[in-house]
Amino acid sequence: MVNGEAKVSGWNAGLAERYIPPFQDKWGKVGPKHSAWHERVKLEIISLSKYVTFLKSELPRPWFLLKPDANPRYNFSLWKGHLQIPSRPEIRFDMVILLNSEYPRVIPRCLLEKNIANYCGKIYLKNSWKDPQTGKEYVMICHDHMAELANAWESNLGIVHFFIREVWFWFAAMQNIIIKNWDKTNETSTRK
Questions:
Q1: For residues 105 and 132, what is the distance between their CA atoms, to the nearest angstrom?
Q2: CA angle, corner 68, sides to 12 and 136, nearest 5?
Q3: For residue range 77-121, what is the model confidence (pLDDT) as tens digits?
Q4: What residue ranges do the domains of the chain occupy?
Q5: Given this model, what pLDDT does residue 31 score?
Q6: Of 98, 135, 96, 139, nearest to 121 (Cα)?
Q7: Among 54, 90, 107, 124, which has the minimal tally of Cβ within 10 Å of its Cβ?
Q8: DSSP 174
């Protein structure tokens, strides 16, 4: 324990990670090409559900919704949902999580609907993805945080840990500017 928080492989785990521990090491070898992939997907869903339950005990509403795309063509490597500001549910952005064929050795990628660029700061506009089903365009949020910290990502971690350790850090850092720009944009729209 460090300052009352569990230490997980060089990463100081916060309160949420006490409820959602890493997977057993054997699951660190199970990715989309592995025969036990569907079992790992079930564990991913259970972990995400535990996190949402935790969030509901702490916030007025969770800051995200996420579930795997049901299209078998994606083999659970595409997850869809949204991010929203809990205190401002009208501020919501569609999201996709893309899992590389090398997941979980390679961290997931989080992309938000392209119009997020109108409201936030740090985002990678050149790293984009177009949903072949809907034609909607998405841009990738930054993933610098996990790349810069030793042991922030390990293969026995899951999508939920990516959300706790990376997506939440980015979204929390962007919320004030998103709200400010959202209000500015919507104030201008209502005056016209």
A1: 26
A2: 105
A3: 999 999 999 889 999 999 999 999 999 999 999 999 999 999 987
A4: 7-191
A5: 96
A6: 139
A7: 90
A8: H
- Over the chain, what is the mean pLDDT? 87
Q: Which residue has the higher pLDDT, 117 or 4?
A: 117
Kindly state the tokens that stand for 180. Answer: 């400010």
Q: What is the structure's pLDDT at 17?
A: 83
Q: Which long-range contacts (C-beta less than 8 Å, at least 24 apart) are formed by 119-124? A: 119/177, 119/178, 119/181, 119/182, 119/185, 120/174, 120/177, 120/178, 120/181, 121/174, 121/177, 122/170, 122/173, 122/174
Residue type, 100: N
Q: How do beta strands 109-113 and 88-98 pair?
A: antiparallel
Q: Where are the alpha helices (DSSP H) in the chain?
A: 15-19, 37-58, 144-148, 159-162, 168-191
Give the angle 32-35-39 at the CA atoms, nearest 5°.
Answer: 75
Q: Measured on CA atoms in the order 190, 93, 167, 14, is the torsion positive or negative?
A: positive
SS (H, E, C) 14-65: CHHHHHCCCCCHHHHHCCCCCCCHHHHHHHHHHHHHHHHHHHHHHCCCCCEE
CATH number for the segment(s) 7-191:
3.10.110.10
Residue 69 host element (H or E): none
Q: pLDDT band at 1, cuts 50/70/90?
A: very low
